[in-house]
Write a structure and sequence with these properties.
Layout lengths: L1 H14 L5 E7 H10 L1 H4 L4 E8 L7 H12 L3 E5 L13 H6 L4 E3 L5 H8 L4 E8 L4 H13 L5 E7 L2 H10 L7 E5 H7 L5 H5 L5 E4 L3 H17 L4 E3 L11 H10 E8 L3 E10 L8 H4 L15 H5 L31 H8 L7
Parallel strand pairs: 1-2, 1-7, 3-4, 3-5, 5-6, 7-8, 8-9
Antiparallel strand pairs: 10-11
The structure holds iron/sulfur cluster.
Length: about 350
């Protein structure tokens, strides 16, 4: 507690007399940790935290959900997914609704669970919804390698894996986005290494700090950001040294490079971002359901007041959305940001966004 108070006082001192500063916590796990620990509420008035595009479910496009639903409706297909994808709205339905109507949808805790499902149901095609960032992609790569070495031929990936650094570059190129620094996701940096984020300082001259997920770790990273603002010495501060190295997890990166290649990817609210996704290499095309058995989904432009796209870029707060807390709530989500526990709107709904007055 003594350390926490010292950090809070340091934040207060460093921000004193500064203009309004907006720091973006890039990842959904940070958003929830910040709310749970009450950090947002104790920050000085001129230090604002805005949430970014780091919740994998939130940035997954309708199109991907529609494809997953199209596969789930097919005879002899099983769609396996992490639980938080179940309620993500597609254009007209959700996987949860399809499951209630008889589609075969299985919730798994690891892509490796799908290997067992595939072995148990050799006559069915088992599709894993490979959604996530650098954190989960290595396990997905390991699953593909395990399926190959074990001769499992009925397990496939429907891929929407995304990479965080290109999304940050995209945000910094967007004139509507206004941030003074990034609180970088510690678990992504464990895999990529701190050096992967050097472009933030070298090219964009913007402060950043890699942070863990405990309250004191987040406060320490905020101190780093404010020190960079204060001294005008911009760098990528690695405030999660106990697990993040400069080069990252070399073994995980080797797995990734063996199985995947970098490709353009479509992000909800941000459109297509160059080199921001992963696709299976041609040697593993037999595990890519879109190449083995493509499905057509109708592209429908739905008019909606949902402001997920702006929320994910830190342009507006969830409470600026006219649907927030009214028709859009976790049990009846209109947009993807209200679905996952790490979704920005869901976190604001659950924990509230007010300030404490001392
Ligand atoms: S509150 Fe709901 S409708 Fe509004 S931006 Fe968030 S997810 Fe979309």
């Amino acid at each position: 507690m003594a350390d926490t108070l010292k950090l809070v006082k340091k934040i207060s001192r460093l921000s004193d007399g500064k203009p309004r500063l907006r720091f973006m916590e890039v990842c959904g796990t940070h958003t929830v940790a910040i709310f749970r620990s009450g950090i947002r509420q104790i920050l000085p008035e001129n230090v604002e935290l805005v949430s970014g595009p780091g919740c994998p479910v939130c940035v997954t496009e309708n199109d991907f959900v529609d494809k997953a639903i199209a596969y789930a409706r097919k005879k002899n297909f099983i769609v396996a997914t992490f639980g938080d994808m179940l309620k993500v709205p597609g254009t007209r339905s959700t996987l949860a609704r399809e499951a209630a109507n008889g589609a075969r949808v299985e919730v798994v805790y690891s892509p490796l669970d799908c290997l067992e499902i595939a072995k148990k149901h050799p006559r069915k095609s088992v599709i894993f919804l490979a959604v996530g960032f650098e954190t989960t992609a290595p396990t997905q790569a390991a699953t593909v390698l395990a399926a190959q070495s074990q001769g499992v031929k009925n397990l496939f990936m429907l891929s929407a894996q995304k990479l965080v650094p290109p999304a940050l570059r995209f945000l910094l190129d967007d004139a509507a986005v206004n941030v003074d620094g990034f609180l970088l996701p510690g678990h992504v940096a464990v895999v990529t290494g701190a050096d992967e984020f050097n472009f933030l300082a070298d090219e964009f001259k913007i402060p950043s700090a890699i942070s863990g997920f405990e309250a004191d770790e987040i406060l320490t990273a905020l101190v780093s950001l404010l020190e960079q603002v204060d001294t005008a010495q911009v760098r990528v501060a690695n405030d999660y040294r106990k697990v993040v190295t400069a080069q990252g997890n070399v073994t995980a990166k080797k797995f990734l490079a063996q199985v995947y290649e970098v490709t353009d990817a479509s992000w909800r609210g941000m459109g297509t971002i160059a080199n921001s996704g992963l696709k299976l290499r041609d040697e593993f095309a037999d595990f890519d359901i879109e190449r083995v058995e493509p499905v057509e989904v109708e592209r429908v432009e739905k008019k909606s007041a949902c402001r997920c796209g702006e929320v994910l870029r830190g342009i507006v707060k969830p409470t600026d959305c006219p649907l927030f807390g009214k028709v859009c709530q976790p049990l009846h989500a209109i947009g993807a940001c209200m679905v996952s526990v790490e979704g920005v709107c869901a976190a604001w709904f659950k924990y509230g966004g007010g300030k404490f007055n001392f």
